[in-house]
Amino acid sequence: MSSLTYVWLLTMIVPLGLGLWAQRKVKTTFAKYSQVPVRSGMTGAQAAAAVVRSSGLQGVEIREVPGRLTDHYDPRNRTLNLSPDVGQASSVAALGVAAHEAGHAVQDARNYLPMRVRQTFVPVASIGSSFAIPVIFVGLILGATGLTNIGLALFTAIVLFQLITLPVEFDASRRALVALSDGRLLEADELDGAKSVLSAAAWTYVAAFVAALSQLIYFFVASRR
Predict the structure, then answer these.
(1) Less Cβ around it within 10 Å: N or C end of the chain?
(2) By the 8 A CB rule, do 171 and 113 touch?
(3) pLDDT tens digit sequence for 8-56
(4) Across the strands, what pairs with 74?
C-alpha cells in the first residue's frame, strides 16, 4: 500500500470507529438511565425551568421539539428545546440532559466567551460544511493549488468550530451537575447517573472533533503530494 493509503486508514477508519463507539455509548447510557425514575417525580422540563430560575434568567422559553435526543438551546431566540423523552420524562437521564441545555442558556446570559467565539464560527462553518470537500476534490482533480487551499481553509473553519465546541459542552455539563446538586433536584446516587449520561454525550463531541481534524490532515497530505 502507498503511504497515502496508510494515512487514509489512520485518519478515516480510526475516527469512524471512535464515532460509532461514541454514538452507541450515548444511546445505551441514555437508555439505561431513562429507566431510572427520579425520586422527586420532577420532569426534565421542570428541572430545566428550575435551573433557569435559580440562575436568575429572564425571557428563556422552554419548548418541546419532535425527535429523539434532539434537545438543544437556541441563542438566537433564547429558547430551550427539549424532546419528549427529556422534557416529559421523570428520569435521571432526562434531568441530566435538560439541565445541560439549561446550562447553555446560562452561558448565553453570562456571555461565556467560548460560546460567543463559537457563534462567530457558525456562518463560515456552515459554508465549509457545504462546500469544503467539493472544492478540495475539484482542486485536487484539476491540480489547482489555489482552489484546494480555499477548500482547506473552509475545512479548517469546521475543525475550529468543533474544537471550540468542546469547552462549551464540557462547561454546560459542569453547570448542569452543579445546579442539579445545589438545587437538590437529584439525590447523590441519581447525580452519579446524570454524570454518566453527560460524560457519554461528551464523547460524541470529542469524536466529531477527532473526525474533522483527521479529515483535514488527510486532505492536507493529499494536496501536498
Answers:
(1) N
(2) no
(3) 667 778 888 989 999 999 999 999 999 999 999 999 999 999 999 999 9
(4) 79
